[in-house]
Amino acid sequence: LISPAIANVKKIAELDRRAAREEEATDKRIHLLGEHEQVKALRAIAAQAAQTDETILLEGEAGTGKEILARLIHSMSPRKNYPFVCINCASISPNNIARELFGQEGGALGEDESPGLLESAEGGTVFIHNINKLPSSEQAILLQTMEEKVVYRLG
């Protein structure tokens, strides 16, 4: 009898968190300013990219605005009311990379269940930079996750 009540409380809490994320996402508008032909072309490409569910690769030197462009694409997409999660792989401790990205199932030894960064973007957009800082084993798992569009927690 207590277990269903706990499940309902968790479900209500998740709905509240999702509503808060949607409200926060609605308030963030990204604009790419400028009338130069290259800026106009970039806006058009971003608008076209925003309508796809395919993985998008943004390349460029550090400081060239890849994250701004990713946020612009997100803000123009059907996912705009869902989270935009920015993951800097260089800032994650090597000992915690897998748990931070993929999350942790609750275990028999009392470990807490926790969603990873990828799961927290459910329905939204994930922007990952410095992927080259990840160990190759985690890069392979991340690639599989991106291809399958399914996140498997550890444990």
Can you tag this structure with a few keywords?
155 residues, mainly alpha, two-stranded parallel ribbon, two-stranded antiparallel ribbon, 4 strands
Q: Give the strand line-up of the largest sheet.
A: 1-4
Radius of gyration: 18 Å
Helix/strand order? HHHEHEEHEH
Using the alpha-carbon principal axes, give the shape.
Answer: globular
> Averaging pLDDT over every residue, what do you get?
78
Structural class: mainly alpha
Number of strands: 4
* Beta-strand percentage range: 5-15%
The major sheet is characterized as: 2 strands, parallel
Distance between the termini: 27 Å
Give the topology, please:
Layout: H1 2-27, H2 37-50, H3 66-75, E1 84-88, H4 97-102, E2 103-104, E3 114-115, H5 117-120, E4 125-129, H6 136-148
Helix pairs in contact: 2-3
Give a verbal description of the structure.
With 155 residues, this protein is mainly alpha-helical. The chain has six helices and four strands. The longest helix is centred in the first third of the chain and has 26 residues, at 2-27.
